[in-house]
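This part of the workshop introduces the protein records we will be handling. The question running through the whole workshop is how a given chain folds. To make this concrete, we reproduce a full record directly below:
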Amino acid sequence: MVRSLGLDVGTKTVGVAVSDALGLTAQPVTTLRRTNLRADLTELRRLAEHHAVEQVVVGLPLNMNGTEGPSASEARRFGEAVARQLGLSVEYWDERLTTAAANRMLIEADVSRARRKAVVDQVAAALILQGWLDAHQPAAHGDEP
């Protein structure tokens, strides 16, 4: 399995998560404050190299009926720029409701409102990446039911 980078791309921030070396679990890493595309890609390259990732999973914000709107188009444009500039393969993963789920998890963990605001995007990125990892696990073998 290869190490992957998960991205929750927003207009103001990019939540970043990374998988473990076995590709089993996703951990939140950081939230990048977006400035311009060149600076965003430079920071993502630094993170990709630091974590030795070989692929990127970008959250695709689909409409509730499954169609793609302007936000999904922007996520695809960002993903294409990442692929070009970092030379990594990029896949897209349905991210509907991940930010809401991330907020719920943080509230249940009794994380303060200020801290939630600071980490929600990276937790959402971890949820996106974890969903993708789970869907791409090889079928289990053995005596398990």
Observations:
- The chain is about 45% helix and 25% strand.
